[in-house]
């Protein structure tokens, strides 16, 4: 079947690209082009919110920004892990402006309440880093009946970002960075089955779809909110708890080749603090400090502006239905 052949084609091209670029060697090759001076910035007085900052790429990002003096709001669901990560960061950096907020990003009402509360309490937010993410292999729904990969990676990110936009717009040099994935390259945006109810449930592909959705949201936000600098990015294949748990075979086979969490976080940090990042257009998808294509060659993953608009309208409707509860 044509569809199957296309899917196999996309996955093979993506994997070969990954072996070259997403690995530790890929990072080392790309880093030859990095400009060290880009990262030599002090960010004292600037405020950063990082979701999923208790482990992996989120924690590495928090640590790197804390070293530069930034105020950090860690948004995590697990209190013990979050407090431990905070203590590690304070100890290693001496920066005491690190705050923990407990939130389950897969529960939409809670995300909305948190964002609205944050907006009332704090006067500024310079950078929002949407890093928390999950790849659930079995179909699960949250208390609101929403599929949990979609709720965490797409609608939760949508609601958090949209609610915080007024606060970001009041703050200087505001930025929103969303940690997507190169895995999104195998998926074309779809918005007809956002709850993954219709077909056989393939968690890896549902995850990749939500990561495609993050890229489309980023492009659309960039157009709608020109005062904020939006980016999506791919961290590469980094050795983190998420990879070890969600993809144990992949993790085992690739363990020698995976990036460190710090290497995975490099582009997140660069997008968050460097001046170079904001000289590039808003709405791009980054890999190793460079904007890259959001489509594989000949992969038929492009969508029309109407399809993208329909997707955004659907998210707005879902978020309105949460607000109305
Ligand atoms: N590692 C890679 O190779 C790779 C590749 C492509 C993209 N990414 C993306 O990178 C981001 C960070 O992942 P990671 O690799 O660093 O793995 P990780 O260490 O497991 O980080 C994921 C974080 O998200 C948090 N999280 C998940 N569901 C949540 C929820 N419902 N509410 C609040 N927090 C939640 C996790 O919290 P708990 O600790 O409580 O689970 C964890 O802190 C994810 O968006 C992932 O999709 C990673």
Topology:
Elements: H1 2-21, H2 24-31, E1 47-51, H3 56-67, E2 71-76, H4 79-93, E3 98-102, H5 108-121, E4 127-130, H6 148-170, E5 175-179, H7 203-224, E6 229-234, H8 241-246, H9 248-254, H10 261-273, H11 275-279, E7 284-287, E8 290-291, H12 305-323
Parallel strand pairs: 1-2, 1-4, 2-3, 4-5, 5-6, 6-7
Antiparallel strand pairs: 7-8
Helix pairs in contact: 1-2, 3-4, 3-10, 5-6, 6-7
NADP nicotinamide-adenine-dinucleotide phosphate (NAP) binds at residues 52, 54-58, 76-78, 81, 104-106, 131-134, 152, 179, 181, 235, 237-238, 240-243, 264.
Essential attributes:
single chain; 325 residues; alpha/beta; Rossmann fold; eight-stranded mixed β-sheet; 12 helices; 8 strands; globular; binds NADP nicotinamide-adenine-dinucleotide phosphate
Explain what the structure shows.
By secondary structure, this protein is α/β, with parallel strands linked by helices. It has one domain: Rossmann fold. The chain has 12 helices and 8 strands. Strands 3-2-1-4-5-6-7-8 form an 8-stranded mixed sheet, sandwiched between helices. The longest helix has 23 residues, at 148-170. Bound molecules: NADP nicotinamide-adenine-dinucleotide phosphate. NADP nicotinamide-adenine-dinucleotide phosphate is lined by residues 52, 54-58, 76-78, 81, 104-106, 131-134, 152, 179, 181, 235, 237-238, 240-243, 264. NADP nicotinamide-adenine-dinucleotide phosphate (NAP) is lined by residues 52, 54-58, 76-78, 81, 104-106, 131-134, 152, 179, 181, 235, 237-238, 240-243, 264.
């Amino acid at each position: 079947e044509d569809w199957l052949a296309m899917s196999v084609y996309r996955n093979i091209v993506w994997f070969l690209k990954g072996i070259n670029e997403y690995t530790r060697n890929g990072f080392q090759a790309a880093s030859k082009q990095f400009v060290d001076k880009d990262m030599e910035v002090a960010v004292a007085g600037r405020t950063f919110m990082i979701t999923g900052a208790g482990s992996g790429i989120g924690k590495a990002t928090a640590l790197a920004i804390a070293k530069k003096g930034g105020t950090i709001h860690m948004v995590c669901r697990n209190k013990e892990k979050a407090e431990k990560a905070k203590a590690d960061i304070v100890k290693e950096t001496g920066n005491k402006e690190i705050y923990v907020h407990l939130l389950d990003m897969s529960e939409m009402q809670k995300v909305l309440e948190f964002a609205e509360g944050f907006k009332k309490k704090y006067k500024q937010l310079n950078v929002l880093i949407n890093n928390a993410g999950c790849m659930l292999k079995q179909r699960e729904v949250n208390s609101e009946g929403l599929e949990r990969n979609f709720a965490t990676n797409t609608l939760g990110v949508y609601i958090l970002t949209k609610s915080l936009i007024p606060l970001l717009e009041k703050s200087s040099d505001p930025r929103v960075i969303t940690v997507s994935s190169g895995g999104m390259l195998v998926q074309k945006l779809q918005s007809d089955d956002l709850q993954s109810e219709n077909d056989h449930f393939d968690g890896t592909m549902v995850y990749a779809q939500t990561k495609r959705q993050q890229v489309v949201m980023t492009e659309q936000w960039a157009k709608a909110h020109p005062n904020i600098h939006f980016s999506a990015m791919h961290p590469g294949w980094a050795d983190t708890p998420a990879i070890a748990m969600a993809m144990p075979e992949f993790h085992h086979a690739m363990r020698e080749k995976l990036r460190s969490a710090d290497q995975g976080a490099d582009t997140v940090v660069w997008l968050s603090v460097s001046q170079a990042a904001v000289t590039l257009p808003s709405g791009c998808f980054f890999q190793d400090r460079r904007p890259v294509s959001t489509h594989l060659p000949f992969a038929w993953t492009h969508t029309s502006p109407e399809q993208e608009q329909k997707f955004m309208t659907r998210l707005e409707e879902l978020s309105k239905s949460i607000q109305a509860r």
